[in-house]
Amino acid sequence: MTSTRTLLVALVGTVVALTGLTAQDDRITVRAGRLLDGTGRIVENARITIDGSEIAGVDRLRGAVTYDLSGMTVMPGLIDTHVHLTSHFDADGETHDDLDESPARTILYAAENAYKTLQGGVTTIQSLGSPLDAELRDAIARGSLPGPRILSSLGAIRESTGTPDEIRTAVRQLANNGADVIKIFASASIRDGGELVMSPEQLEAACGEATAVGLRSVVHAYGTEGVTAVVEAGCGGIEHGTRFDDETIALMAERETYLDLHLELLWSNYDEYRSAFIGRGNYTEMGYARMAEARRAGLDTFQRTVSHGDVKMVFGTDALAGAHGRNTDELVARVRIGRQRPMDAIVSATSLAAESLGLGDRIGTLARGYEADLIAVPGDALADIVALRNVRFVMKGGVVFKYEAQ
Ligand SMILES: [Zn+2]
Ligand SMILES: [Zn+2]
Question: Cys staple from 65: which of 29, 79, 127, 197, with CB 3.0 to 4.6 Å?
C-alpha cells in the first residue's frame, strides 16, 4: 500500500513539474524552514528559486511559493559514491550472477533500483559497476526515466587483468567504452581475507593510466599495507578502507585522498539477507565471519579517522541487492555510531562527494548556477539525523519526483 501511495505521489509530482516546464517563464520557488547549503552553511526560512534545471538564487524573501517546505530541512540531493546498480534479488529471492540472465532483465532490475534510490533522496550515484550501467545512465540522462544521475566504472581492473602494460590497455578500453571512473581491486575480497594482491607496478599503471586519460581512480583496499600502497601509487580514492593505523590516516589527510569507509548498511544488509547470499562464491560461513570482523574493526577505524578531522571522508554505501533506496541508513549510522557530526555527514554526501566526483561546481551545493537537485526531510535533520530516513521531497534537475506534504 505504501509503495502504491508513493508512486502516485511521485506521478502527481512529475505532472506538476511537467506543467511547470510547459510554461517556460514560470519559475519554481521552494520555501525551506531550514536550508543546509551542502557546504556547512545554514539559512533559516530560505527561498530557493529554480529556473529550468538550475538554481537561480537563494534568498530570504517572503511571499507565496510553489512548494512550502517550511516545516522541513532542505538540502542538496544526496550523492552516493559507491553503489552496484544492477545488483538485485531474482524472483526466487536470491542473488545471482549477471551472466545467468538476459541483459534486458538485468537492466529492468537496475531501473527499479535507480527509482528506489532516487525516492530515497539520492540524486546522483557512482556505480562501480557493470558494463550494462551505460544504457541506464544514458536513458536516465535523456530525462524521462526516473532515477539519479549515474556515473559508472562499467567494469573493474584486477590483479588478474595482467601486467602493467595489459592494465594500461584495459584502462584505455574502459575509457573508450565511456567509463566515468576507473575501479580497481587492489586487495582481495574481505571474504577471502582482504590482503593486498596488486603489486606497486600494477597499481601505478592502473591509477597512472586513469589520470593520463582524464579519469579518476577509486580503489578497493583494506588494511594499513593495502591502503598505504594505494595512496602512495597516487590513486584518488579508497573504497572500504578499514583496519588501517593512525599513520595511514595522516597520510590520507596529507595526500587529500578521498575515503569512503562503509560502516553499517553494507554489513547489516548482508545479515538481513543472509539466506539470499550464502552459498554463492565466497559467501561462505568463513566469508561471513570475516565480514563480521571487518565490521567491528571498521567502526574503530571510522571513529579514529573522524577524530583526526582532516581526512576527506565521502559518503558511499556499496549498496547491493536489498540496500537500494535505504542509502541514508549508512549516513544515519555514521552519525549515531561512527561519531561523525551531523553537518559533516551531510557535507560528506553533498558538496564533498560532488568534489570527489569532479562535479563540485555543478551539484552538491544549493547556490545560484548549480543543478536544482534538492531534497527535504521533516523537522531539523541536524538535531535528529534519523529524519534522513524519511525523505518527503525530491527534485532533480528542476523536476519534482516526490512530494509528500507534511
Ligand atoms: Zn537476475
Ligand atoms: Zn562495491
Answer: 29
